[in-house]
Amino acid sequence: MSDTLFQRRTVLGAGAAFAVAGLAGLTMPARASSIPATPSMRGGANNYMPGAPIVERIGGGGFWMSGTVLRASDGAPLMGQRIQIWAHTTEGSERDWHSHGATLTDANGAFRLEMPQIVPALGQAHAHLAYDSGEYETVFLRPLLSSAKDTSLVAHFVLQSA
Fold this sequence. Notes:
Oligomer: single chain
Order of helices and strands: HEEEEEEE
Largest sheet: 4 strands, antiparallel
């Protein structure tokens, strides 16, 4: 009987040690893996004008451009990052200075800027966005609207340190 008791205590002791080791592994902080940086899109820099002012709205509004800005190394949201936006709209060409404006990201890395309705240029309804603040590598995006009737468009940036 004493051999049976010894074996039972050994098995229970080993199981408890394994359970504690397993729990310790569950309480360790997870490490975020690096996410790839957003590459610049072909045609994204077309009609770019450095230094567009930070504005509350471009023109009369009616169309919403929004998105997020994250850091490539760990996916953390980046606050206070300048995103410039321009497009061919019902109020002007993407070459017109008044069709350009910039906004800053909030604490969650999100940005949102109202602008006039985007209309097709060269057969495609599209927007242009740029991260160009300098702390990270410059990225130009040229996302397409799925329909010229869309009244919003979302674009996301993942930035790599410069």
